[in-house]
Amino acid sequence: MGVGRLDDEDYPAVAMGQAAELLDVQPAFLRSLDAAGVLKPQRSGGGHRRYSRRQLVLAARLRALFDEGLTLDAAARIVELQDGLDTARERIAELEQQLARMDHRQDGGDVVDRAPPAE
Known about the structure:
mainly alpha; 61% helix; elongated
């Protein structure tokens, strides 16, 4: 395995047994995530499931919600919504930075109040 793959969060390096041990779950839990289409591990040449670090993080998040009593469908939806919210927040921060840079250039460094007009 090349050194670059060690840094790749998406490289499928972890076998099912190792993944189950790392997550402190039964292999059946990981198979259920695969069967539900929530987590799709890569397959080795021999057909064995291989998980990436990113997939292990997702499985841990799902397990935590599952342990709180949520169904697998509900846990998957919550994780999807959380990820969407994180993405939206990152995009908002990027746009705010772009806007601040534009305001700074337009006004020669003066701060511009972007508050909406009072009605």
